[in-house]
Design a protein that fits this description.
Radius of gyration: 17 Å
Largest sheet: 2 strands, antiparallel
Helix content: 25-40%
Number of helices: 3
Structural class: mainly alpha
Strand content: 5-15%
Length: 74
């Protein structure tokens, strides 16, 4: 299988989708494999780790408080 060179548009798309979409979805949008996508992101020092969704326990601003509703630190 021949390797497909990375274009400036591919890299721009990778940067815009990183941290917002799962790696498999980014790879599919680029027409590449997951491994190739992960390797290029690593080479460019782009994190593919998804940002926590607002309101999830992984959100650093989430404060369970005691008020019965979701609370956020300001």
């Amino acid at each position: 299988m021949e390797r497909k060179p990375w274009t400036d548009d591919d890299i721009a798309k990778l940067q815009s989708m990183a941290r917002r979409y799962p790696t498999a979805q980014i790879a599919a949008a680029l027409g590449r494999g997951i491994s190739a996508t992960v390797m290029k992101a690593h080479e460019l020092q782009i994190s593919l780790r998804m940002k926590p969704k607002r309101g999830s326990r992984m959100d650093p601003n989430f404060d369970p408080g005691g008020g019965g509703g979701l609370a956020y630190r300001a």
